[in-house]
Design brief:
Blueprint: E1 2-3, E2 8-17, E3 22-24, E4 30-31, E5 33-43, E6 50-59, E7 65-77, E8 79-85, E9 95-96, E10 100-107, E11 145-151, E12 156-162, H1 165-174, H2 189-202, H3 217-227, E13 230-234, E14 239-243, E15 252-256, E16 262-268, E17 276-283, E18 289-296, E19 307-310, H4 318-334, E20 337-344, E21 355-358, E22 368-376, E23 379-386, E24 394-400, E25 410-416, E26 423-427, E27 440-445, E28 451-460, E29 465-472, H5 476-483, E30 508-514, H6 515-519, E31 525-530, E32 540-547, E33 553-558, E34 563-566, E35 574-582, E36 588-591, E37 595-598, E38 615-620, E39 623-629, E40 638-644, H7 651-654, E41 660-661, E42 667-673, E43 693-694, E44 698-701, E45 704-707, E46 713-718, E47 726-734, E48 741-746, E49 751-752, E50 760-767, E51 774-779, E52 786-794, E53 803-812, E54 822-829
Parallel strand pairs: 15-21, 17-19
Antiparallel strand pairs: 1-8, 2-7, 2-10, 3-4, 3-9, 5-6, 5-8, 11-12, 13-14, 16-20, 17-18, 20-29, 21-28, 22-23, 22-27, 23-26, 24-25, 24-27, 28-29, 30-31, 31-34, 32-33, 32-35, 35-36, 35-37, 38-39, 39-42, 40-41, 40-53, 43-46, 44-45, 45-52, 46-51, 47-50, 47-52, 48-49, 48-51, 53-54
Helix pairs in contact: 1-2, 1-3, 4-5
C-alpha cells in the first residue's frame, strides 16, 4: 500500500519486471506469459477498499521492462493505493515473472511550474533498454546564452549566442527576469558597443552558470565587468562602464596641480609577492572539468612553492586565465600607490575613469606649475622662476580649447628653449597652440612633464568640494602583457613520470589445452597467461613455441588479451612453450620455464575405415535403405552419413542429420528420403497380361510388353490419383528403331510426360488433374519397341530428388573426429 500526494486528481502505478516476463518451453523457446495484478483505492480516512482495475499483463521478454496504469479519482483528495499480485508465485525455472511496484505517481492537472518570469526548460525522453533503465540521477547541460550581441561589421545588435561581457552586461540589465529591467534609453549604448569591441579585440569572455538565488544584481554586474577589465558605472542618467585600457595617447580630461587642487596625499601598499598565483576554473578544453593553473610572478625562476589563490569567475579558457592573472600581477607591480587631491566645486568635468595629468613639486622636484601672465608670440611670461638642469630638454603642458563649447580641451605639450639661469620668461620652440592668458601650465622635463593618472573615484564633501582618488595609468602594463608569450597548457595533473627501465616479472601460463578434447578443434593449442607478481606492469607478452629441439617461433600479444591460440601442429607432435613479459617502455623480462607437451594427448583414437562389404545401400521408391555392420574398432562410436547429387564430397553441406551412435560389432539400419512409397502399378514386370488393358498393337509375352508398328495404341492400367499431386514414373524401353512412347495420366484432361525415342531406363514426373484415373503408355504408329519394369508412385515432400545420388559413410570417435570415409555408393531415384 502506498499513499498519493495531497489534492490528487489521479494516480499512475508503475510496475517493474526486472527479469522480464516470459515462459520457456521444453526446447528453450520463448513463449508469452501473463501475470494478474489487482489495483484498489480508498481515501486516506476511509476503511473500505474500492477496486480500480485487475490488470492482466502479458509479455514475451527476457529483459527488464516497465508497465504503467493511470486512472482518475472520483474527487480531489489524498488517496491510498493497494496493489495485490493475484498470480501464484512459482519456482519454475522456465518462468520469469518477478514483479516489483516501482513507483506511485500523483497526478494533478495543473501545470507544474507557476513562475511569472521566463524559464529555460529541458524535456527528456529516454528509451529504456537492458543497458539503460531506472531513474535519471544527474543531468548536465552545456548551454550558451542567446541574447543581443553587438555586430561590429554591420553596427547592429543581433540576437545570437555570445560570451562577450559587454553583451551579457546589457542582457542582465534588460533581461525579463530582472524585476527592474532598464530600457534602451537608460543605457549608454555607444559606450557598451565600444567596450564590446575592446573585449573582442582582447579575447575577453565571461562564461558562468548563475544559479544561486542569493546573488545580488550588483554583484553579477561587477563580476561580468571584471571579466572585461571594466567596472560598472551609472552617471545618474545612463548605465555604462569604465574600461581599464591605459595608453599614452589616451584623452587627457584635466590637469591637476597645486594651482587648482590641494591636500595632495598618497599611500603605497607594500607586498611580498608569492611565487605564483593559482586560479581554479572550469577548463573548456577538458569538458569544463574543474582544474587549476599556476601563473608565476613576473621574473620568478625556480620551483613554485608559495602560491596565492585568486578568483576569476566566468573564465573557462586556460590561455585567458593565464593572461588575466598576469595582468593582475602587473597591476600590483606598476600601480602600488593610490593618490588623493581636493578641488573646489561639487561638479567637475572629470569623472571616474578619466585620465588626468598631475604635476606637483612635492611629488617630483623636476615639476613646477605656473600661471601665464603675458603671451607674445612664442614668449610666455609666468609668475614663477624656472631653473633647468643642464643637458635636459624641458617642455610645458597646457590645455587648449577650440572654442567656448569645448569644455575638455586638448592636453598640449610644447618644448621650451633651454635657459642656464632661473627665468620667468619661456620661449616656445617650433609652432603650435599657445596657452591662454591666465592659464595654468605644467613645466618639467620633456619626457616627463607630469604624472598620467586615472580617476578611480570622486567623493563629494559637505563643504562643496571634490576629493579625486587616482592611480597611476601605467600604460606599460598592457605593453608588457601584449609582449608576454602565454605558455602552452595541458589539463594533465602532475609532471610526467620518467620511463621505468626495470624488467617486468616472468609471466605464468594458467592453462594450456590442445587437440579436440581440450579445444573442440583438432590440432589446435589454446593457452591462458597471467603477468608476474612484480611491481613493474606488463604491457605485452612474447610467446615462443617450437617442436621439441627445433627453432623457436615467436607470437606477440597484448597483456589485455589474457591468452591466445597456436596453430600449425598436428596431433601427436611434442612441443615446448615459454613466455616473457614486455613493459610499457619496451623492456623485456625473463622467460618463464619452458613447458613440454604433446598436442592432442587427450584426444580419442581415430577410427579405422569401415568394411565396405558390410555396407548395403538399397534403392527404394523415393528413398534408400542403408544397412551397416560395424567391426571390432572400439574407437568408432558414431557414423555420419553424407548424401549429394555430386560425386565430390563436401562435409559442410552434405551431412544428413546428426551422427548415429553405434557400438562395435553391431548392425545399424537407417533410411534416406521417404521410404514409405508403394508402387501403384500392378504387373509392372510384364509377367501378368491380365493386369493391363492392351490396345490392338500391344502384346505381353516373355516378360515384356511389345508394340507392333502400324497403329497408335496404348497400354494402360487404372489407378487412384489425387488432383494436384505429382506422380513419378519409371520404365525401361528396348528394341525400338522408330517412333515414340509417351507416359500419360488420362481420364479427364490428359497429362502427358516426355516422349521417349530411344532404348533405355527412364523416369518422369507428371502432375495429376481432376478426372485423372488411368496411367498409360501411348505408342506412336511407327513405334516398334517393348516396355518393361513399369513403376508409378505418389511423390511427397520427403522423397529424394529424381536422379543419381551419392552416399558416403564416415566413422567418428567420441570427440567427433572422423576416420576414413567409405563410398561413394551410387543410387538412382525414380
Amino acid at each position: 500500500m502506498r499513499t498519493t500526494g495531497k489534492d490528487a486528481s489521479g494516480a499512475t502505478v508503475i510496475l517493474s519486471f526486472p527479469a522480464g516476463l516470459v515462459r520457456f518451453n521444453d526446447d528453450g523457446q520463448k513463449r508469452t506469459h501473463s501475470v494478474t495484478v489487482r489495483l484498489e483505492q480508498r481515501l486516506v480516512e476511509a476503511t473500505e477498499w474500492q477496486e480500480v482495475e485487475t490488470l492482466e499483463i502479458s509479455a514475451k521478454k527476457a529483459e527488464g521492462f516497465y508497465r504503467q496504469h493511470s486512472w482518475t479519482f472520483s474527487s480531489r483528495a489524498q488517496w491510498q493505493v493497494r496493489a495485490t499480485m493475484m498470480t501464484d508465485e512459482t519456482d519454475d525455472s522456465k518462468k520469469q515473472q518477478r514483479t516489483n511496484w516501482a513507483a506511485l505517481q500523483t497526478l494533478r492537472p495543473e501545470y507544474p511550474l507557476n513562475v511569472t518570469r521566463p524559464l529555460a526548460l529541458v524535456a527528456l525522453r529516454i528509451k529504456a533498454t537492458h543497458q539503460l533503465n531506472g531513474a535519471l540521477d544527474n543531468l548536465s547541460v552545456l548551454a550558451s546564452r542567446v541574447c543581443l550581441d553587438w555586430d561590429a561589421p554591420t553596427e547592429t545588435w543581433i540576437n545570437r549566442a555570445t560570451q562577450n561581457p559587454a553583451s551579457l552586461y546589457r542582457h542582465v540589465l534588460q533581461a525579463p527576469e530582472n524585476p527592474r529591467a532598464v530600457a534602451d534609453a537608460e543605457l549608454d549604448l555607444e559606450q557598451i558597443q565600444n567596450w564590446h569591441e575592446f573585449c573582442a579585440a582582447k579575447g575577453l569572455t565571461y562564461n558562468a552558470a548563475l544559479s544561486s538565488t542569493t546573488t545580488l544584481l550588483g554583484d553579477v554586474l561587477a563580476e561580468i565587468c571584471a571579466a572585461g577589465r571594466a567596472t560598472r558605472n551609472h552617471d545618474g542618467l545612463h548605465w555604462g562602464v569604465v574600461v581599464d585600457q591605459p595608453t599614452e595617447d589616451a584623452l587627457i580630461v584635466d590637469h591637476i596641480s597645486p594651482r587648482n587642487a590641494w591636500a595632495f596625499s598618497g599611500s603605497r601598499s607594500y607586498v611580498t609577492p608569492p611565487d605564483a598565483f593559482v586560479v581554479t576554473f572550469k577548463d573548456a578544453g577538458n569538458d569544463y572539468k574543474e582544474t587549476q593553473r599556476e601563473i608565476p610572478w613576473p621574473g620568478f625562476v625556480g620551483d613554485i612553492e608559495e602560491v596565492e589563490a585568486i578568483a576569476m569567475p566566468g573564465k573557462v579558457y586556460a590561455a585567458e586565465v593565464w593572461r588575466e592573472a598576469r595582468r593582475r600581477q602587473l597591476e600590483i607591480i606598476h600601480r602600488p600607490d593610490t593618490f588623493e587631491a581636493t578641488q573646489d566645486g561639487a561638479l567637475r568635468v572629470t569623472t571616474r575613469g578619466d585620465h588626468v595629468m598631475v604635476n606637483d613639486y612635492s611629488l617630483s622636484r623636476d615639476h613646477l606649475d605656473a600661471r601665464v601672465l603675458q603671451v607674445s608670440g612664442n614668449l610666455l611670461v609666468i609668475d614663477e622662476l624656472v631653473g633647468m638642469e643642464p643637458d635636459t630638454d624641458y617642455a610645458v603642458r597646457f590645455r587648449h580649447f577650440e572654442d567656448d563649447e569645448d569644455t575638455i580641451g586638448t592636453s598640449v605639450v610644447r618644448l621650451v628653449q633651454h635657459a642656464s639661469d632661473e627665468v620667468s620668461v619661456l620661449t616656445l620652440m617650433g609652432s603650435g597652440p599657445v596657452p591662454d592668458l591666465r592659464a595654468v601650465i605644467q613645466i618639467g622635463p620633456a619626457t616627463f612633464t607630469a604624472h598620467q593618472r586615472i580617476i578611480t573615484g570622486i567623493e563629494r564633501t559637505a563643504d562643496g568640494c571634490s576629493i579625486l582618488r587616482q592611480v597611476d595609468a601605467a600604460p606599460q602594463i598592457d605593453v608588457a602583457l601584449d609582449a608576454t608569450e602565454i605558455p602552452a597548457w595541458s589539463s594533465r595533473v602532475g609532471a610526467e613520470i620518467d620511463d621505468n627501465l626495470l624488467q617486468p616479472s616472468a609471466p605464468r601460463f594458467t592453462s594450456i589445452t590442445s587437440g579436440f578434447a581440450g579445444t573442440d578443434t583438432a590440432d589446435l593449442i589454446t593457452f591462458l597467461i597471467a603477468p608476474g607478481s612484480g611491481a613493474i606492469s606488463t604491457a605485452s607478452y612474447e610467446i615462443d613455441h617450437r617442436l621439441s629441439g627445433g627453432a623457436w617461433t615467436t607470437v606477440t600479444l597484448s597483456a589485455g588479451s589474457g591468452g591466445g591460440q597456436i596453430e600449425g601442429y598436428t596431433t601427436g607432435d611434442a612441443i615446448e612453450l615459454r613466455a616473457r613479459g614486455v613493459s610499457a617502455t619496451g623492456i623485456f623480462g625473463p622467460y618463464s620455464t619452458a613447458i613440454a607437451m604433446t598436442v592432442g594427448a587427450g584426444d580419442a583414437d581415430i577410427p579405422t575405415a569401415l568394411d565396405e562389404a558390410a555396407i548395403t545401400v538399397t534403392t527404394l521408391l523415393g528413398g534408400a535403405l542403408i544397412q551397416i555392420a560395424t567391426g571390432d574398432d572400439a574407437a568408432t562410436t558414431a557414423l555420419q552419413i553424407y548424401r549429394s547429387t555430386s560425386a565430390t564430397l563436401d562435409r559442410e553441406t552434405d551431412a544428413t542429420g546428426q551422427p548415429l551412435a553405434v557400438e562395435p560389432q553391431s548392425t545399424i539400419s537407417t533410411t534416406l528420403g521417404d521410404t514409405t512409397r508403394e508402387n501403384l502399378v500392378s504387373g509392372g514386370a510384364m509377367t501378368n497380361a491380365a493386369a493391363w488393358d492392351l490396345d490392338a498393337g500391344w502384346a505381353i509375352a516373355g516378360g515384356v510388353a511389345t508394340h507392333t508398328a502400324g497403329s497408335s495404341d496404348a497400354i494402360k492400367q487404372a489407378i487412384t490419383a489425387t488432383t494436384g499431386k505429382y506422380y513419378r514414373f519409371g520404365f525401361t524401353v528396348a528394341g525400338t528403331s522408330a517412333g515414340t512412347l509417351t507416359p500419360r495420366l488420362t481420364g479427364g484432361s490428359t497429362r502427358a510426360g516426355t516422349a521417349i525415342t530411344m532404348d533405355g531406363t527412364y523416369s518422369d514426373r507428371i502432375q495429376a488433374v481432376s478426372g485423372n484415373d488411368t496411367v498409360e503408355f501411348l505408342a506412336s504408329t511407327d513405334f516398334d519397341g517393348s516396355l518393361d519394369s513399369v513403376v508409378a508412385y505418389l511423390e511427397t515432400s520427403g522423397c529424394l530428388d529424381r536422379g543419381t545420388h551419392y552416399i558416403w559413410i564416415e566413422p567418428q570417435n567420441a570427440d567427433g573426429l572422423p576416420g576414413p570415409v567409405s563410398g561413394p555408393f551410387e543410387i538412382t531415384i525414380i
